[in-house]
Amino acid sequence: MSNKEKKQGRIKAFFKSRKAKKGSAAVIILAAALAIVILVNIITGLLVERFPNLKFDMTTSGTYQLQKETVDYINKLDQDITLNVLVTEKTFKSGMNAYDGAQYFVQANELLKKMAAQSSHVTLKYIDLSANPTFTNKYKNVDWNSSDSNTLMIIESGDNYTALSLDECFTIDTTSQYYQYGYTIYTATTIEQAVVTGMLEVTTGKRTEIDFATGSGESEDAYSALKNLLKQNAYNVKDVNLLTQKPNKEAKALVLYAPTVDLSDDSVAKVEKWLNNNGKYGRNLIYIPLNSAVKTPNIDALLKKYGLKVSNGLGFCTNSQYVINSYYTFITDYNNDTYKKGLKNPDVPVVVSDTRDVEIADKSLASPLLSVESGAGVVPFNSDGKGKASDYLKSDGINAAAIGSSSSTDDNKSNIVVFGSPMMFLSSYLNTSYNNANYVVNICNQITNRGDMGITITSAKQDNGQLGTVTESTTALVSIIFIGAIPIIILLIGLAVFIRRRTL
Fold first, then answer.
1. Which of 25, 28, 2, 24 lies closest to 14, judged by CA?
2. CATH architecture under which domain 60-198 falls
């Protein structure tokens, strides 16, 4: 018998042996398991791509989840809305040449997909302008030719549309030295709030106008966060200089934020006449006094007509259940059910800092909104600082906000709302877990008779320690690991077991 015949005989004998039969069974089982793993990964990937809400968010703060307010708003939509992102999805997910912070574009892409998956009324499109150069012709109110134009998205509903810029959708670090050399560093995603604001704008029609008074030493930087909050909730916000202009007839509310000097006789007369509205009323002044000593006899006289008075000192609280960091920073209780109604979570309080006490001078005209009823008082501005807290306590507590009305009938009135703390409207207070942003939007919705249509969305920021996909390259790496590498490793382990058993 030749060597070749002997080899063939040994091979046949091996495959007929008990060892080979066991090994073959193991290989078949391994191959089947490997096929199932690969098939499950592929099917899961396709399902998640088709239905983004099936994707689990493993980040500690829900980085890839829509906020509840967004979900509630989208679920109530009854108009079709299209979100047109003006780059390809691949370019968008890659970070659009970001020097740092490309992970926020992956995050933004997930949020946009979940918005579209939430309602059949929302459609998401990625438009390659190089392949569709005539796409922009329809949107004539957008300045496409400006050298600093950075339009990222067009939101449209019917014939209404609005444009969102790149820096409206993402927070850009302009303080970094790299920014000066043309490098873009992104530090947060604001696309969820920007898109919801755009949706409100294209579906609301004519927006309610709220103006900010200038001409009395007001700092625009100080009230920029409040101004942006109102813009984000689809209010039409304008400035009006009371020294040279009258309050706009279209405005439903006028904000006077921390004037450093008193209104002139002419300015306060303009405001009073505007509030009266030829006996029709229906207008509102929101006054936030400066948190330091400023003599304002003209403003004080106007407040008195609405049953209000502002203390000549700062409010404090010694109640440990209310104090946050110091006696001058504390939470408050809601003291008016009418203006508490409409809050998404009325159990969350409003926090104030360095507030004036808003006193009720005439209970028939005015009532408190935010209060601390025990363990609170007012330290006068002219205090020498040597007194004890107990010397300044007020038996009935203090008010951090109140509302006064002047009207001909209950249904026909104008209001003055006074918030004693300008600090409570800084971004550091509005962008917190407290109810400051929600409360002021709710107040504005009610006094302007706009109804409960405003929502407040905070910016989404990722923590370095969070779990989750952070870049497009990481996404690809995860796919390779779970769809390719792990099955191959399983195969190699199986082969090693097979070979080991063969030698036994």
1. 24
2. 3-Layer(aba) Sandwich (3.40)
- The residues, ordered by sequence, that sit 6+ positions from 481 with a Cβ below 8 Å of its Cβ are none
CB of 123 within 8 A of CB of 113?
A: no
Phi-psi category of 56—alpha, beta or left, where left has phi over 0 and alpha has psi -120 to 50? beta
The model's pTM is 0.70
SS3 content of the chain, % helix, strand, coil (to 5): 40, 25, 35
The pLDDT averaged over each successive group of 10 residues in the chain (504 residues) is: 57 55 58 66 55 47 75 93 96 90 93 95 96 92 76 94 90 79 86 90 86 94 91 90 96 97 97 95 96 95 97 95 94 93 89 97 96 95 81 94 82 93 93 90 92 60 44 55 64 65 58
Which candidate, 214, 295, 220, places its Cα nearest to that of 248? Answer: 214
Superfamily of domain 209-447, CATH level 4? Class I glutamine amidotransferase (GATase) domain (3.40.50.880)
- Helix, strand, or coil (residue 309): strand
State phi, psi for 100 to the nearest 5 degrees.
-155, 150
What per-residue confidence (pLDDT) applies to 494?
A: 64
What is the gyration radius of the CA atoms in the chain, in angstroms?
A: 32
Residue pair 185/178 in contact by the 8 Å Cβ criterion: yes
Residues of the chain with CATH 3.40.50.880: 209-447
Q: Delimit the CATH 3.40.30 region(s) of the chain.
A: 60-198
Distance, CA of 71 to CA of 501 (rounded, Å): 57
Helical ranges in 128-238 per DSSP H: 166-169, 191-204, 220-232
> How far is the C-alpha of 26 from the C-alpha of 323, rounded, in Å?
68
Distance of CA 212 to the CA centre of its chain: 22
The owner of tokens 């009324």 is 121
Residues 208-233 as b/e (b if ≥16 CB within 10 A, e otherwise) read bbbbbbbbbebeeebbebbbebbbbb
